[in-house]
Amino acid sequence: MSETTINATQSTEGERISPPDPKPLPPAAKSNKYRLTKEERTKRLEAAFNELNSAVEKIITSDDWRKYLDFQSRFNKYSARNTLWLQAQARERNMEVSVFASFGTWKKQGRTVKRGEHGFRVLAPIVYQHEKSELEIEADQRNIGAMKLSGNIADPSKTTESEVRGFTLATVFDLSQTDGPPETLPKNPVRVTPIVGQCDQGIFNALVTEIKATGYEVKFVDGEDWTPSMNGRTTPKIRTVEIRNSLSPAAQAKTLAHELTHIVLEHDHSDSRSETEAESIAYLVMNHLGIDAGEYSFGYVAGWANNTDTMLRSAETIRRVATKLCYDLDNRIEKEGPVANTITQSTTRDVHIDVSPGLELS
Question: Are residues 45 and 131 in the same domain?
Fold first, then answer.
C-alpha cells in the first residue's frame, strides 16, 4: 500500500458530504479521448510511459542521486519493529524524520547533535565474538562454494565469529537534529511538487465509483493524525480508502487513481515495486484524462524505484493495468455520467509507518 498501517482505528463518522466541487477543466484537457481507438489509446499511453521512464532515469542516474545513495548507505537499516517504533516516536513529537544514527556515527560523518535534542530509542543487538573451533573452520572451508551461491559469504580464514546474544536499548538521532557543514549533507535530487488545480466532476466521480465497485468505501478525512507527507491510505482489512480533504481536486483525483491501483493489484504493503507500479499507473491514467501529474509523479517514482531495473521489471504490469483502467474510466464517464456523491467524512486514528521518509506519499 502507499502507507503501511498497524490498525488501531477509531473512526467517528460525521455527516455525508460531497467531495470538493471542482471546476471543469479547460476544453483542451478533455479532448477527443472518448473517440480514441484501441490503437490510439495504446499509442498515447506508450508515449506517456516513455516520458515517465525518461524523467525517472534522468533523476536516478544523476551524480546527485549517486552521492545521496552513498550517503544513505553509511547508516544502519532498521528492522520492521524498530521502524515502527521510530515512526511512532516521531508521530508523538509531530516530526518528519529521514536518517537515524548514533551520536558517534554522526560525529564520524562530520555532523554534531544540536544542544538540547532528545534522541529516539531503538533496540540494538548485543554482539559477542567467539573463537571458532577447528571443526567450524574446516566446515567453512569445505562449504565456501555453497555459501557463495546462497549469498551468505563467510571468510574461511577467520578464526572468530559474531553471535547475537540479546538486545539492548540504544539512542539515535534524526538528521534534522544535527548540524554540520553543507558538504556533509548531499542534496537529495528527488523532489515532489504538489499537484494544484481543478478536476472535471465526471472524472472525479468515475474514480470514486471505480473504487466503490471493488467493495471499498471512500472517505475524505482531515488526516489530523497523519504525517504531513501523507495524502491517502488504503486499508484492506476494513476495505477503506481515505483521501486527505485539504488536497486540491486534481491531487485528490491522482491519489484516488493511486489507491485504486493498489486495490486492483492487491498490494498489501509498501515497497519499491508496489509504489512504483501504483504511482506510474496513476500518472498514466491522469495523463490520459487530461491532468498533468508529472511534477509530482516523476519524483515520487524515482524515490521508490531507486534504479531503472525496477521500472523495467514492472513495465508490462504498468502498461496492462493502465490500459484497462483508462478503458474502464472512459466507459464509465461516457455512459454513466455524474454519479451520486455519498462520501463519508470521518476522523481516524491510526499508527502509520512512513517506509520512505522524506518522500510525499500518496
Answer: no
